[in-house]
Write a structure and sequence with these properties.
The chain is mainly alpha-helical. It has four helices and two strands; from the N terminus they run αααββα. The chain is rod-shaped, with a radius of gyration of 39 Å.
């Protein structure tokens, strides 16, 4: 941020900051709000020194919006959060502004779970044996026909 305080760079930085604040509010992103709040805390004195007075109001409005969205977790900047254990199901946020989470049952089966025993498939045996008898009968007829043709060929030769 050494050369970031020139008027053109400050304008780009201001626009980016305002856009990110709007995104944090629209998507209720606490992590983005925390990051923007930390950025504002570290750079507000330098911005106040280098920015034109007519644009300071834009910075302050955006900073207030960040503080509002960040106010849902008042000590979030001072508490270092640790990641919890991995959950077996995805966490889903419910409600409009509630921070509570509940676990949803996954839509897919867990491959680690034992599958239910597969029941043997029941074939209609009567139909099976009828088809088998028809095939065997056709094979016998074909065999007799071939023997007759073979006998006639032997007579001709």
């Amino acid at each position: 941020l050494n050369n970031a305080y020139r008027p053109k760079d400050l304008q780009c930085l201001r626009h980016t900051f305002i856009i990110l604040v709007q995104l944090a509010q629209k998507f209720e992103s606490l992590l983005l709000a925390e990051a923007l709040s930390t950025f504002w805390d570290h750079t507000k004195s330098k911005i106040n020194r280098h920015e034109k007075s007519e644009y300071l109001a834009d910075w302050k409005k955006a900073a207030e919006k960040v503080q509002e969205s960040h106010a849902t977790r008042p000590l979030a900047a001072f508490i270092q959060q640790r990641r919890g254990r991995a959950r077996p199901a995805p966490a889903v946020k419910y409600g409009h502004r509630k921070v509570n989470f509940r676990l949803e049952v996954p839509a897919f089966a867990n491959p680690a779970c034992a599958l239910p025993a597969i029941a043997p498939v029941r074939y209609p045996r009567d139909e099976y044996f009828d088809k088998l008898n028809k095939i065997q009968y056709q094979q016998r007829e074909m065999k007799e026909t071939l023997e007759n043709v073979k006998g006639k060929l032997d007579r001709l030769i």
